[in-house]
Design goal:
InterPro entries: Xyl/GlcA_transferase
GO biological process, one term: protein O-linked glycosylation via mannose
Radius of gyration: 17 Å
Strand order of the largest sheet: 4-6-1-5
Distance between the termini: 35 Å
Oligomer: single chain
Subcellular location: Membrane
Keywords: Glycoprotein, Membrane, Signal-anchor, Transferase, Transmembrane, Transmembrane helix
Number of domains: 1
GO molecular function: glucuronosyltransferase activity; xylosyltransferase activity
């Protein structure tokens, strides 16, 4: 991954442009996995069912805009648009907006960050030859709390609404899409 990302950072002039380079994410349900050495090997593992697109079975919205069907055959970077709940893994300039500190633990940290990047007119560019693989692990304390504690979910919802209002105040009319996207 590092080789592809570094090469793309230079080729796509990340230092001088507002780009968020998306690293397509996959996952396995196996605790032991030989990491694919090439995109072709990864595609074969996808076809065999050893790998899956990240969170496909629980939260497809988070990575759907990556357009995995297009990625399969892409040989050059391609642009994708922001959509509600988009939370890809990205490579960005050091001076990009920081993660909002309201979102610690589980829930909405990456979504809010990507929303802020979009509001600041970052271009989302999918890297055609980079990828990452999420390995299975025990649930974190925070996701366990999210799943089992109604108060945690209510608090997260309140923080989310506060963040959206702040976005609206800061970015004005252009930020309306963040408020309306959730209602569609």
């Amino acid at each position: 991954l590092f080789f592809f990302a570094r090469k793309s950072v230079i080729q796509l002039d990340l230092a001088n442009t507002k780009k968020a380079l998306i690293v397509p994410a996959f996952e396995t349900l196996r605790y032991r996995l030989s990491f694919p050495k090439s995109k072709a090997e990864l595609l074969s593992m996808l076809d065999m069912g050893t790998l899956f697109t990240f969170r496909y079975h629980v939260w497809t919205k988070g990575h759907a805009p990556t357009n995995f069907a297009k990625w399969r055959t892409a040989t050059t970077p391609y642009h994708v648009e922001w959509e509600a709940d988009f939370e890809p893994y990205v490579v960005v300039r050091k001076d990009c907006p920081e993660y909002d500190r309201r979102f610690v633990g589980f829930g909405w940290n990456k979504v809010a960050h990507i929303m802020e990047l979009d509001a600041q007119e970052y271009e989302f560019t999918v890297l055609p030859n980079a990828y990452m693989i999420h390995m299975p692990h025990a649930p974190s304390f925070d996701i366990t709390k999210f799943r089992s504690n109604k108060q945690y979910r209510i608090c997260l919802k309140t923080l989310k609404e506060e963040f959206q209002q702040d976005m609206s105040r800061h970015y004005g009319f252009a930020a309306l899409k963040y408020l309306t996207a959730e209602n569609n």
